[in-house]
Design a protein that fits this description.
alpha/beta; five-stranded parallel β-sheet; two-stranded antiparallel sheet; 4 helices; 21% strand; globular
Length: 150
């Protein structure tokens, strides 16, 4: 455990949510790299039930959960978090972060997202509150470039 000013600072937990229809190396490689680069205690893979930003998945929630569990079995730092699959409404990131912050009050949370998601962030439900609960870790994806002001 890291120490700061006489108190213990827990290793951060990484979070990667998504539809995972199907889960693939484009999800797993950034999760592994973020875990290694940031010294994350674990990387939670959080499949959602009803995605708010896209059409309903082709595979059922049960099938996607099974795929995520198989992918997680290959890396002991991956943990499958099923909370969003139990919801009967769209899975909003803010709701998940609030729950996790309540469960892990002293643990830094790092929410991993792709550049495409960052660029669409203003369309997310209560997006302004995300940084109240977690750090954002953005993975650059080929073909997605931010348009920074000059």
């Amino acid at each position: 455990m890291l120490k700061r000013s006489g108190s213990s600072l827990k290793a951060p937990v990484g979070l990667l949510g998504g539809t995972f229809d199907p889960i693939h190396i484009g999800h797993l490689r950034p999760a592994i790299e973020a875990r290694d680069a940031l010294g994350l205690a674990e990387m939670r893979l959080i499949p959602n039930h009803i995605p708010p930003h896209r059409a309903n998945p082709f595979c059922s929630s049960e099938q996607r959960l099974a795929m995520v569990k198989l992918a997680a079995a290959e890396n002991h730092h991956f943990v499958v978090d099923e909370r969003e699959l139990r919801r009967d409404k769209p899975s909003y990131t803010i709701d998940t972060l609030i729950e996790l912050r309540h469960e892990l009050p002293d643990t830094p949370l790092c929410f991993l997202m792709g550049m495409d998601s960052l660029l669409s962030l203003p369309s997310w439900h209560r997006w302004q509150e995300l940084l109240d609960y977690a750090h954002l870790v953005v993975s650059v994806r080929p073909g997605w470039q931010p348009d920074y002001p000059a």
